[in-house]
Design brief:
It is a single chain. By secondary structure, the chain is an alpha+beta fold. Strands 3, 4, 5, 6, 7, 8, 16, 17 and 18 form a nine-stranded mixed β-sheet that branches. Strands 9, 11, 12, 14 and 15 form a five-stranded antiparallel β-sheet that branches. Strands 1-2 form a two-stranded antiparallel ribbon. It has twelve helices and 18 strands. It is elongated and about 80 Å long. The mean pLDDT is 97. Bound molecules: (2S)-amino(hydroxy)ethanoic acid and manganese (II) ion (2 copies). One manganese (II) ion binds next to loops.
């Protein structure tokens, strides 16, 4: 049995092959991108196939695999002091509907590569290491993001999580039961010693600066709203303006106002996106009776986020007055800004430097499981640069084998240091 050796490096070819193989599960041809994309929405059969592939790799790497009540999977590598709290690593392998191969998967397969490398070199660690696959991180099927890690961390109650349903009315609970994913591990989980997640940046900052590693300061605030706008179907040719209650117009007014709020700069570095819009009856010669829109707000500043929410609520009331519609607003996700502890950021920065890699501090624009697990223990993230302006949630998402190996080598040494830290 050998102990920690800073000269160890991961097998980057093995990591790249794993990313490629998992990327084929749920793959589809995206004509717009002229590329193979990935569609592995949470708890679909494609997600299960992906889980089965990765769990098989976990077991082949000697990990003991357990599942918690919300279907999060944990692969455990025993420590010399196996009763001590584990170092937790991982991310998610569920994807959006138009995904690339890296979002989430780099964190899970990078964690697996860390385990495989420690096994190759016979390295034992004081603490156990656990590799997690979190359920429904993306939130695009059941309407709230980081669902699995939020239940693991205690922010969302298990029963509430199981009740969530997808647009077809299928609930999380029914899917967990259907797939036999209700495991024996209680939630919230026992606090890990620390948590580290490697993730593609999903933005342009690192690549533009030519920086190899992102030391993540934290995650910005996220608010998701669902607006059900109700008006009245009416003939497009015979109904004068004054008699219309046009749900589609109301949706457009709200969308334009959100853009004006962002561009005003009055709410700090806010971003607003109306990603989903569904008209009913959605026909050319009928004034829309109902329109569903979703609103995704992001803000580094929690107070500015709340101001934006309040001002949007006030504006929606104006739109109701002006157009005669009614708007039922539902908040489907709301997470505050999260700052990762300086100690975890210093750890990532130190190991990047030890490996001769440039690094820079970045705040994540995307939400991550690390933002949830940070409620249980010191959490940190390692970003690797994405090419093509860091495009993500798009099959064009791409990082290089070298950049992925950089991030996972930093993960390897940071995790090994944490796991060799006695009580
Ligand atoms: O929406 C997000 O930021 C993440 O991809 N779930
Ligand atoms: Mn992700
Ligand atoms: Mn994502």
């Amino acid at each position: 049995m050998s102990t920690y050796d800073s000269s160890i490096r991961i097998d980057s070819g093995r990591l790249w092959r794993s990313l490629g193989e998992l990327g084929e599960v749920g793959a589809y041809f995206d004509a717009d991108a002229d590329l193979r994309g990935v569609r592995r929405l949470a708890l679909t059969d494609a997600d299960l196939a992906g889980r089965e592939l990765v769990v098989g790799w976990m077991r082949a790497a000697g990990l003991t695999v357990t599942t918690d009540r919300i279907g999060n999977v944990y692969g455990r590598r025993a420590g010399v002091d196996d009763t001590s709290a584990p170092v937790l690593i991982g991310s998610h392998i569920d994807t959006v509907a138009t995904a690339g191969r890296f979002d989430g998967c780099l964190g899970v397969l990078g964690g697996l590569e860390v385990v495989r490398t420690l096994n190759d070199h016979g390295v034992s660690t004081t603490r156990p290491i656990e590799l997690a696959i979190f359920t429904e991180e993306e939130g695009v099927r059941f309407g709230t993001d980081m669902l699995g890690s939020a239940v693991a961390a205690g922010r969302i109650e298990l029963d509430r999580a199981r009740e969530r349903s997808d647009p077809d009315g299928v609930t999380v609970g029914a899917e967990l039961d259907r797939h036999g994913l209700v495991g024996e591990v209680a939630v919230p989980i026992r606090p890990p010693f620390a948590y580290l997640e490697c993730h593609i940046e999903q933005g342009p900052i690192l690549a533009a600066a030519g920086t190899r590693i992102g030391v993540v300061r934290g995650v910005q605030a996220i608010t998701w709203l669902e607006l059900q706008i109700s008006g009245r179907a009416a003939h497009a040719g015979t109904t004068p303006q004054r008699l219309r209650r046009n749900a589609g117009l109301a949706a457009a007014l709200i969308t334009v106002r959100l853009n004006e709020m962002v561009e005003s700069g009055a709410y700090g570095q806010m971003l607003a996106t109306v990603g989903r819009q569904v008209n009913y009856p959605n026909l050319i010669n009928i004034v829309p009776e109902r329109t569903l829109i979703t609103v995704d707000l992001r803000n580094h500043d929690g107070a500015a986020m709340r101001r934006a929410e309040d001002d949007l609520t006030a504006y929606i009331a104006e739109v109701e007055e002006r157009t005669g519609v009614t708007v039922a607003a539902r908040t489907t996700a709301r997470t505050p800004p999260v700052v990762f502890p300086q100690g975890m950021r210093d750890l990532v920065e130190k190991h990047a430097a030890n490996l001769g890699m440039s690094s820079d501090q970045v705040t994540s624009g995307a939400g991550h499981d690390a933002g949830e697990i940070a409620a249980l223990c010191p959490a940190g993230m390692i970003f690797v640069p994405g090419l093509y302006d860091g495009i993500s949630h798009n099959p064009r998402e791409y990082s290089t084998p070298e950049a992925c190996a950089d991030g996972v080598n930093v993960l390897l040494h940071a995790v090994t240091e944490l796991a060799c830290t006695a009580r």
